Amino acid sequence: MRTPRQQETPEAARGRVLVVEDEFLIASAVESDLNDGGFEVVAVANTANGAVALARETRPDLIIMDIRLVGGRDGVDAALEIFGETGIRCVFATAHADAQCKARAVAASPLGWLQKPYGREALLGAVEHAMETLRPA
After folding, report:
1. 137: which strand partners?
2. Of the ranges 79-83, 101-105, 120-124, which one carries the lowest mean pLDDT score?
3. Which ranges in 18-136 belong to alpha helices (H)?
4. How many domains does the structure of the chain reveal?
5. Which of these, 24, 54, 57, 65, is most buried using a 10 Å CB contact count?
6. What is the pLDDT of residues 71-90, one digit of tens each?
7. Does residue 4 lie in a domain region?
8. d(CA 119, CA 109)
């Protein structure tokens, strides 16, 4: 788990995002793509427990949640706990989105799914769509 970002962010940030990804290079690329797209990455976690702790601390608008994580819990477990406690929703990112996994995830009210490997455009499109869904009409 990396600590929350202490950097100054532009006032015009398009939304605050927590990235949960246990592959360092993927996490770095996602963080860079989101920052380049005008979003504020509040923190990066690599475990389910880290994700829960950082979500409580940073209160992001949205979470990009990898499903398969190091440790004893997966991203669905983390998303369910976070959503239950805070109402914060996620976009799941995975290479293994089988029907059983998706059925478990429904209770977390996900805002989308990214199939790995995904590119910058797919990531930003999913996050933009999720942020639009979260904004009051």
Report:
1. none
2. 101-105
3. 24-36, 48-58, 75-86, 99-105, 120-134
4. 1
5. 65
6. 999 999 999 999 999 999 99
7. no
8. 24
